[in-house]
Amino acid sequence: MAKLSPQVSALKAAHWKQRLAPHLADGEVIRGFASACHLKPATEGVAFTNARVVGFNTDFASSDGMCVVFAVPADEIVGFDLAPVRLVPTMSVRTPSGPVTFGAFDKTETEFIAYFLDYLQREGVDPAAREGIMQLRDLEEQRRRAESQWEAAQNGVQVFGEPMTPAQWTTIHEHSAAGEMPWLVLNSGRAGQLVAFDDRVVLLKKGHLADEAEGVRETTIPYPEITGIEYNCGALSGDIEVLTPAHPECGDRDHWLKLHRDEKVVSYGSTSMPNALSFPKPYYRQALPEIEQLRRRITATQERAVTSA
Q1: CA angle 200-206-210, nearest 5°?
Q2: What are the two backbone dihedrals, phi and then psi, of residue 36, each rounded to the nearest 5 degrees?
Q3: Which of 23, 71, 121, 282 fits a disulfide with 77 by CB distance 3.0 to 4.6 angstroms?
Q4: In angstroms, rounded to a whole number, what is the distance separating the alpha carbons of residues 121 and 74?
Q5: Counting beta carbons within 10 angstroms of the beta carbon of residue 167, is it exposed (0 to 12), middle (13 to 18) or buried (19 or more)?
Q6: Measured between alpha carbons, how far is 138 from 18 in angstroms, rounded to an integer?
Q7: Are 129 and 25 spatial neighbours (Cβ–Cβ below 8 Å)?
Q8: Residue 125 CA: distances (Å) to CA of 25, 42, 49, 84, 305
C-alpha cells in the first residue's frame, strides 16, 4: 500500500492511484504520494514509485483523463533540493540535463519527500520495472523527435495575420492527422484561425458566445463541399467566409454591415457562424494571393472528383 504524506488523504490517494494506473510502466508500483504542486504547467501531486518520481494532473483534458507532467527516472536523479523559494518550500530534482521543479509543498511533508527522493537516488530503478522504463524512454524519444519535426515544418507554412503563438501551433497540431502539415494559416489572433490543408479547410475558434464554456470550436469543411470563399468587410475589418450549401453567402450586404455595427445583434457574422472568421482587411490584402491559390486548389479538387465519377 502506498504511503501518504500528511497533506494527502486516503480518499484523494485512491483517486490519484486510479487515474495514474494507465501511465505506469510494466512492473512499476506506486510507493508514496505527496501534494507538491506546480502552476505552469499545472500539477496537483507527486507520486514516488519503485522506478521514478512523477508529477501529475488528474484534471488535464486528455483522452484518458490523466497527464504525467513531469517524470524523472530514479537512475537520472543526481540530487534534489527542498529549499524555500520566496518562503515557500519547493521540490526540485537535479538531473544530468538540468533541474526539474515539481512545485511547492507543505513544510510538514519535507521529511516524507526527502525520504523517498533519497531512496530513489540510492537504489535506482527497480529491476522489475527496468524494461518498462526503457520502453517509456523510447516512446518519449519518439515523441520529442516528432515534435522537433513538427516545429521545423512550421517554417514552411504560409502564415498571414497575427504572429503565431506556441499554443496556436499546438491547437493546429491537435487537429492535424499524423505527419500532416497545413500549407496556409490565416491567424486572426483571439478570434481564431483558418487553416488550409491539402483536402480541407478547418476553422478554429476559441470559446463560445456569451461567455459560454471555454475550448476550441472546430469546423472542418472538405474541399468538395466548398462553393466559394468570400470576404465581406467594412472600412477596416471584415469576415472571410467559407461558403457551402448549408452556409450560402449573405445576399444583403447592407444587412451584414448593419449587424457588424450593432454589437447587440449576433444572428449573423463571424462570431455566430461556424464557417466565418473575423479577419482585418489589411491582413486579407496581404493574404489575397494565397487565398486565390486556395480557391484554385478547391476548384481543381472538385474537377478531379467530377472526372473520376
Answers
A1: 125
A2: -55, 130
A3: 121
A4: 6
A5: exposed
A6: 25
A7: yes
A8: 12, 26, 9, 28, 57
Give the strand order in the sheet containing 30-34. 3-4, 30-34, 45-49, 52-57, 67-73
CB 29 within 8 A of CB 20: no
Task: Please name the helix (run of DSSP H) or strand (run of DSSP E) that holds residue 194, with its range, or none.
Answer: strand 193-196
Cis peptide upstream of residue 127 (ω within 30 degrees of 0): no
Rounded Cα distance between 6 and 11, Å, is 13
Local confidence pLDDT in tens for the 309 residues of the chain: 899 999 999 999 999 999 899 899 999 999 999 998 888 888 899 999 999 999 998 876 444 445 788 899 999 999 999 987 677 899 999 999 999 999 999 999 999 999 999 999 999 999 999 999 999 989 888 888 887 888 888 888 999 999 999 889 989 988 888 778 999 999 999 899 999 999 999 999 875 443 334 568 889 999 999 999 999 887 667 899 999 988 776 554 444 444 444 444 443 445 568 889 999 999 999 999 999 999 999 999 988 888 876
Annotate 197-218 with DSSP letters as a single string: -SSEEEEEEES-GGG---SEEE
Alpha-helical runs (H) found in the chain: 10-20, 110-123, 127-153, 166-174, 253-261, 281-308
**What single DSSP character describes residue 99?**
E
Total number of residues shown for the chain: 309
Q: Which three cell numbers stand for residue 114?
A: 526527502
Q: 188 with 239: CB under 8 angstroms? A: no
| Grid coordinates of 106 | 507543505
> Grid coordinates standing for 242?
467559407
Grid coordinates of 62: 486528455
What's phi and psi for 293, nearest 5 deg? -65, -40
All three cell numbers of 30, joined, read: 506506486
Buried b (16+ CB within 10 A) or exposed e, 233-242: beeebbbbbb
